[in-house]
Amino acid sequence: MGIVTGVLRAVRKLLTLALLVVLVTTLLGTLGQFGGQIPIPTDGDDIGPTIGPGDGGTTGDSAPTTDDPTRTTSDSNRDDGESTRTKGESGATDRQSGSSVETTAAPRTSPTENPWRDDTVVVAVENSASADRNVTRLVAKTLDYWETHDDEYAAYSVDFVLKPDAEDPDVVVSFTEAVQCSGHTEAVAGCAPVLNETYRPTPPETVEIEAGHNDRSTLLTLKHEFGHVLGIRHCHRPLAIMGSNCPGGVDQDRPDATDRPLAWQSSNLTVYVDSSGVSHPVNDQIDHALTYYERGADGTVPEDLSFTRVDRRSAADVVVRFGDSECGANAPSCFSYRGRDVDGDGRLEYYVSSTIVLSPEIDRKAVGWHAGYGLGYLLGAEQQSELPPPFVNAGYGERRSDWWR
Fold first, then answer.
1. DSSP single-letter state for residue 59
2. Which segment of 166-170, 186-190, 358-362, 397-401 scores lowest on mean pLDDT?
3. Which domain holds residue 325?
4. Which of 8, 72, 273, 393 is the most buried (most CB within 10 A)?
5. Per-residue pLDDT averaged across 138-163, rounded?
6. Average per-residue pLDDT in the chain?
């Protein structure tokens, strides 16, 4: 009788354990749905066991982490100053900021008398917010652009002379941590006075530019703000530079970034890889992902897409870096992007910068897959079914295979 009772107790324990395993597995699968907008499978072997806190690397005994990236995007109508609404269109305090759009449905700025009363305007540069970065070259490109196009678009023409350290300049380009723009309560990426015959400048006039954005975004903002200096208001030509949430002034059905063949304005994207947070080589894995997309990614991206590796973070459209605990619990990788809403519909029309974050503990053989997975979304995919085949419902082995071939 004692033997039978012992057997029954053992069976009950086994059944209880089995039920517990089912419940835990179900719970993990459910929680995975909240790691981002993409379901998280639980094959759990890219990172391995959790490292216990404060124990010098001792392996903890918690459940394995999940194996799917999360999505931490900035795809709402707010995008940290890249796209703003204007307030006020007149007066000496009319300082504007904004973004861009490509279309020809816009008025031409009427020519006016040169408010400077001088054909030469000296431009200086203050760069206390990012002293280790050469922003003067971006200012030079901006002035070159307007020297070429002022007759076509500007209210008046002048000769800009760039003297970064000028003691008595007409215009100072100030790179700052946070732009203070009169009439704006929201964050903006740049600000400048609209100079025309009704407002005679009082040198030095200041063009404020928010530091910290990549070269592509910074150059676009500089061109936009110097358009204001030349008397051009929002939603006037060239809209590729001066457009800023222009309902009624542009087509209302502007295609969103996720509806375009590519979510960027250029088909050549620059990539910066920061591998300082990982101990093993990763460049070959990152290159596998880039090369796969350059070959067309099984017909899911334009044929002319290409990538250029750069050695400066500020020069990159796509930054790939390694960091702990930046993607949320149980997520070995995640990505984010910033872009511009040019037609005021609350959705981005194109991207201007992006970041892929990978855990340093990802299995080396799976690094390329995770980078490629994030790139798929950064190039315009909106859901997993729109990604190239290697990234749709990939299992443990597929993520470590030669999926790029």
1. B
2. 186-190
3. 33-77+255-399
4. 273
5. 95
6. 75
The DSSP element (H or E) to which 368 belongs, if any, is helix 367-378
The CATH number of the domain holding residue 55 is: 3.40.390
DSSP for 266-303? -SEEEEEEE-TT-SS--HHHHHHHHHHHHTTTTTTS-T
Provide mean pLDDT across the span 21-47: 28
Number of domains in the chain: 2
Q: DSSP label at 51?
A: B
* Residue partners of 36: CB distance under 8 A and separation at least 6: 69, 70, 71, 72, 328, 331, 334
The least confident of 10-14, 61-65, 263-267 is 61-65
> Is there a single domain that holds both residue 179 and residue 54?
no
Q: Is 3's pLDDT higher than 70?
A: no
Q: Which of 310, 291, 309 is nearest to 301 (CA)?
A: 291
The CA distance from 375 to 104, in Å, is 31
Edge to edge, what strands does the sheet with 333-340 contain? 70-71, 333-340, 350-358, 318-322, 268-274, 306-309
Inform me whether the pLDDT recorded for 62 exceeds 60. no
CA-CA distance, 384 to 271, in Å (whole number)?
Answer: 23
Give the pLDDT mean for 268-295. Answer: 94
Choose one of 242, 263, 295: the last residue of a domain: 242
Are residues 280 and 213 both part of a single domain?
Answer: no
The answer to whether residues 278 and 325 belong to one domain is yes
The answer to the question of residue 122 being in a domain is yes
Same domain, yes or no: 227 and 261? no
Query: Does residue 260 share a domain with residue 230?
Result: no
Rounded-to-10 torsion of CA 141, 145, 148, 151: -140
Q: Tell me the pLDDT tens digit for each residue of 330-385.
A: 789 999 998 877 776 778 888 999 999 999 989 999 999 999 999 999 999 999 99
Amino acid found at 174:
S
Hey, what are 87's tokens? 């307030």
DSSP 60: -
